[in-house]
């Protein structure tokens, strides 16, 4: 057991929108420490979303992220030799993290040519309430709903 809780690291806002949420997303998007490439992919995708939808790209992205973020999840809990999937509320910070990770995971699985195209398409799909990341959220919610009977095993 740790003696003290680790200090919370605060991240700096991004240069274009001055938003820490964007920086968190770009940090998840980044591969091999190539942050400038991750920023360019994100900014180009936001510009592409603006040109395709005619709406504010950043607002569309925030709406998509809110749509993808789960409210409940299941956690395995062992009780008397049996393992139960216990539904739990998701902490606000984890909710955002899961949403970002799912969005990026399903962006990478898309069929478009460049990462910018993939990300723009996933943002547009998620803001409309469709796409792979939304399906993942729905599956998570369905799993929690199915295991509601075990919610009394919460810790």
SSE arrangement:
Blueprint: H1 20-29, H2 35-53, H3 57-68, E1 72-79, E2 82-89, H4 92-108, H5 115-128, H6 132-146
Antiparallel strand pairs: 1-2
Provide a brief overview of the structure.
With 155 residues, the protein is mainly alpha-helical. It has a single domain, classed as Ribosomal Protein S7 (Orthogonal Bundle). It is built from 6 helices and 2 strands, in the order αααββααα.
Written overview of the protein:
The structure is a single chain. This protein is mainly alpha-helical. It has a single domain (20-153), classed as Ribosomal protein S7/S5 (Ribosomal Protein S7, Orthogonal Bundle). The protein has six helices and two strands, in the order αααββααα. It has helices at residues 20-29, 35-53, 57-68, 92-108, 115-128, 132-146; strands spanning 72-79, 82-89. It has a two-stranded antiparallel ribbon. Strand 1 (72-79) and strand 2 form a beta hairpin. The longest helix has 19 residues, at 35-53. The mean pLDDT is 92.
User: Main sheet, how many strands, which sense, barrel?
Assistant: 2 strands, antiparallel
Integer tally of domains: 1
How are strands sequenced across the largest beta sheet?
Answer: 1-2
Oligomer: single chain
Class computed from helices, strands and strand pairing: mainly alpha
Number of strands: 2
Spell the H/E element sequence. HHHEEHHH
Shape: globular
Mean pLDDT: 92
Question: Which bin fits the share of residues in helices?
Answer: 55-70%
Q: Gyration radius, to the nearest Å?
A: 18 Å
Q: Fill in the CATH topology.
A: Ribosomal Protein S7
Give me the CATH architecture, please: Orthogonal Bundle
For the record, what is the CATH homologous superfamily label?
Ribosomal protein S7/S5
Beta-strand portion reads 5-15%
Q: Give the CATH level 1 class.
A: Mainly Alpha
Terminal Cα separation, in Å?
A: 18 Å
